[in-house]
Amino acid sequence: MKLVLLGTGGYHPNERRHTACLMLPEEGIVLDAGTGFFRVGAYLVTSTLDVLLSHAHLDHVVGLTYLLDTLADHPLRRVTIHATAEKIAAIRAHLLHEQLFPAGLPCQWSPLGEMPITVGGATLRHFPLAHPGGSTGFRLDWPDRSLAYITDTTARSDAAYIQQIRGVDLLVHECNFPDAQQEWAERTGHSFATAVGQVAAAAGVGRLLLVHLDARSQSPDPIGLDQIRKWFPRTELGEDGLMVEF
Q1: pLDDT at 138 over 90
Q2: 141: Cβ–Cβ under 8 A, 6 or more apart, which residues?
Q3: CB environment 185-206: b (16+ within 10 A), e (fewer)
Q4: Residue pLDDT, tens place only, 205-236
Q5: Going by fewer Cβ within 10 Å, which terminus of the chain is more open, N or C?
Q6: What b/e sequence results for 25-42 when a residue is b if at least 16 CB atoms lie within 10 Å of its CB, and e otherwise?
Q7: Three-state DSSP class for 165?
C-alpha cells in the first residue's frame, strides 16, 4: 500500500513544504486538508474520497476550499469529510461562510461518532489528542497492515494515545520542533524530537514517519533526526512528494 505525502510542514507553507496533507490513493483516503491538498487530483484513482480531519486549525483545513478545482478535473461519485461534530460546525460556519467562500462544497459531512467504522476498506478508530482547541488521532487497520496518524499534540513517553497506536506498522507523527525548543513545543501544543522517538518505542510500532515540521526552517533536517533515532532507529523524515510503501 502507498502513502503519498502532499504536505509535510506546519503552520504555513514555505518553499520546501506545504501544510498538512497525506493521501492513500488506492484507498481514496486523505488525512487532513492543508495547503498540500491542491495536489490530491494528481493522485486520484478512486471514484470516492474520504477526508479525515484531525482538527479545524487553518493549516489543516484551508485546502478544503481547493476541492472545486479537484472535482472539475476529476468528477467523483462521493466526497465525505469526517471530523468531530464541533470541528465540522466551525468549518462550515467560518471557513465556508458565504462571505469567504460563496461557492459551497459538493460533499457529505460525517461527524465522528461511535466507532469503529469502515473507510476505504480499512477499520477506522479515532481518539482525542491534547492540543489547544482539541485534536483527533486516527488509526486505520486493514487485514494485513495498519497505520496511525498523530498530529498537533505534545508527545510524551506516557501519553494516553500510546495504547491506541500500539503495534501499528507505520506511525505518522508530527515533530514540529527540535529538542532545543522543547519549552516552545509544550507551550504551543506540539512535539519535540526526543519525545516522539520515545512514543514510537513505547508503542512498539514498525516504522516512524515524521511530518508537520517547523515552517521556519527549510533545512533537509529541521528537527534532528539522529536524536530521534537514538530512541527509535526506524525513523524517516517526511518530505513533500515522498511516496512511502508499507
Answers
A1: yes
A2: 122, 123, 125
A3: beebbbbbbbbbbbbbbbbebe
A4: 999 999 999 999 989 999 999 999 999 999 99
A5: C
A6: bebbbbbbbbbbbbbbee
A7: helix
3-state secondary structure of 238: coil
End-to-end, the C-alpha distance of the chain in Å comes to 6
For the segment 7-20, what is each residue's pLDDT rounded down to a tens digit? 999 999 999 999 99
Q: Which residues contact 129 (CB under 8 A, 6 or more apart)?
A: 54, 135, 136, 137, 150, 151, 152, 153, 161
| pTM higher than the cut 0.90 | yes
Contacts 24+ apart (CB under 8 A), 41-44: 41/69, 41/70, 41/73, 41/74, 43/4, 43/6, 44/70, 44/74, 44/76
Q: Which helix (H) or strand (E) holds 81?
A: strand 78-83
Show the DSSP H helices in 3-119 as ranges.
58-61, 67-73, 85-90
Q: 3-state class of 52 per DSSP?
A: strand
